[in-house]
Amino acid sequence: MPKANEHMVVVGGTSGIGLPLAKAAHALGCKLTIAGRGAGRAAEIAKSIGPGVAGLHLELDDGNSIRAALADGPPIDHLVLVPVDQLATSVKNFDLAAANKALHIKLTGYVEVAHTVLPRLKPTSAIVLFGGMAKSRPYMNSTMITIAKAGIVGVMNTLAIELAPVRVNSVSPSLVGDSPKWEAAVRKGAKPFLDALTAKTPTKRLASVSDVIDAVFFLLDNRSVNGHDLAVDGGYQLVL
What we know:
This protein is of the alpha/beta class.
């Protein structure tokens, strides 16, 4: 677990899984910085988490935004990059501009963040990147999602070498049943789909937000885990 008074920066900590992850870090006593779209929105969400939490405006497809948010500040013990870009596209129905934006968010944006914060990292710092199971399990209209998530493993590998002794790992959740995205999908009628997926998963349960947070904290904490992409899927990839 991250320790009290260690400084954690969560890019994408204003929504989705990033927000409960940020809240969990704050509950442990971490000094916390969250970053997401909209200065006012980020500041308001930071205030709702608790006193002393900093909220920064950051857009991963805008290098100036990244540098303005992260170039200066206190040393960073833990950096987590959560943002997702759910561009639904296929080769047959392809939008080059949207595809390039997706790659900026998930690949070059991640590298630019690492480049920008490098002077603020300690030899003992750790980074976790968010990927996903689509990297090895493409599905209909997942073209750019699959490409980006597969690329994150490459980003992780090269950063683990280039930033050493800073550790860099990634986490690849499968479908997270109680995430805001899928809770909203259930309200729109997706429960039969989730029930069928649960029945096929060896653990007979879907990954939960708390499972993903535990995995991230493990990767941040264990000093001998480096350059590893951790699947949080209940054995999903073994059977589907």
